Amino acid sequence: MPDETTKRPATLTELARLLMTLDDLLVSCMRCGFCQSVCPVYGATFREADVTRGKIALLEDLAHELTADADSVNDRLNRCLLCGSCESNCPSGVNVMDIFLRARAIVTGYRGLGAVKKLVFRFILPRPRLFGALLRLSSVFQWPFLTKASEKADAYRAPVLNPWLGRRHIPSLPSRSFQSETGDLDEPAGAGPKAALFPGCVPDKLFPKLSAATLKVLRRHGVSVFYPAELVCCGIPALASGDRRAFRELVELNLKALSRSKFDWLVTPCATCASNIKENWRRFRDDFGPEQRALIEEIHGKTLDVTAFVVRVLKVDLPPAAGERRVTYHDPCHLKKSLGVSAEPRAILKSLPGFKFVEMPEADRCCGNGGSFNLFHYNLSKEIGQRKRDNIKSVNPEVVATSCPACIMQLKDMVSQNQDDMAVKHVIELYADSL
Ligand code: SF4
Ligand code: SF4
Questions:
Q1: Is 402 helix (H, G, I), strand (E, B) or coil?
Q2: Is the pLDDT confidence value at 11 over 80?
Q3: Model confidence, pTM
Q4: Measuring CA to CA, how many Å separate 105 from each of 9, 172, 200, 235, 409?
Q5: 3-state class of 171 per DSSP?
Q6: Is the pLDDT of residue 93 over 80?
Q7: Ligand 2 neighbour 85 (Cβ under 6 A)
Q8: What stretch of H or E contains 244?
Q9: Which residue would you say has higher pLDDT here, 122 or 7?
């Protein structure tokens, strides 16, 4: 059988087989258009080509479209945040994420992967030490380029880098990653559960304080921690770019690291990692050997976002608090729509001493980050983000909390650009501060 993960479809027969697999998934779409009302990209552009129904129409004639203009197909498919809003609201139960991820792999297999993505996905991400060293080096030389834009949101302008950064307000790079600070941990099992800590690239390399807060919470609640220092990226950037080969290699490295010890749960402060590990590792399990498939299945049942872990597994007593500092919450798509976690972070926020929880309008509408979507479609990402910021501002909070580091980056950018006097925090950082 041809291997979708390692090579381009070499023959038309092979391409036809991949397209037929996709066709089987497309038939369940009834063209009702209900996805229009929930799609953040459509909500900004009002273009039928940008919503699921339009993309499905494109995919139905993919063979012809690919041979006519593969780059245009790629552009149209990538005008999507992979937020899952369409899938979670589809009355016909169309497996949209499955369709989009498989379609992206077919298109990338056909037209090939760009040199930069190849370098990042296949050479840098699988080497955490090299990745860390490159960021450390950048952190040394970053200061002449950065000007503080927002004290509270802790965001910077980088005018010299505008041609590449597109006027984004960004966080600064820390001098040390969580991985280099903490090293390898494998604490003996105690009276409480044992958890494998999977920080994810952004909490490890960009927001090490978030990873440290997660570790603090686990330890304060008697959890033994297994943290293999050789963990790598969960693979979602490669998968979203259609690079199933790099995705498989990254998952294999993580499986090898995680198989070094026994653990009851896999806990992460990153909603996107939680969703990718739980859903996509399993979705593409046929790319792996039998032992790895068994481990993927086991990990599927053990993976939880840290807020769900605190509430569901640790069953921490969270009596409602009544304070003055207003805090609101943004639902990351990969947490609420993919994994059904939304009550747990709110329960934690409502219990924080000194805080008063206020619900914002459209709390579960996508913030517009979408990983590589933000990189390649910044103006559109910003327009979607502005609607989120306006919803946040309407309840006038002192802090906006969320549970995904990618959302944190987008929210920092938005509140900083709007000069809002507001901090952006992960729920678990606020909770760790209260302990
Ligand atoms: S994806 Fe679902 S909601 Fe969208 S047009 Fe198809 S059936 Fe309707
Ligand atoms: S995944 Fe999100 S951005 Fe993409 S088509 Fe569906 S609703 Fe729109």
A1: strand
A2: no
A3: 0.92
A4: 10, 33, 23, 14, 27
A5: coil
A6: yes
A7: yes
A8: helix 244-258
A9: 122
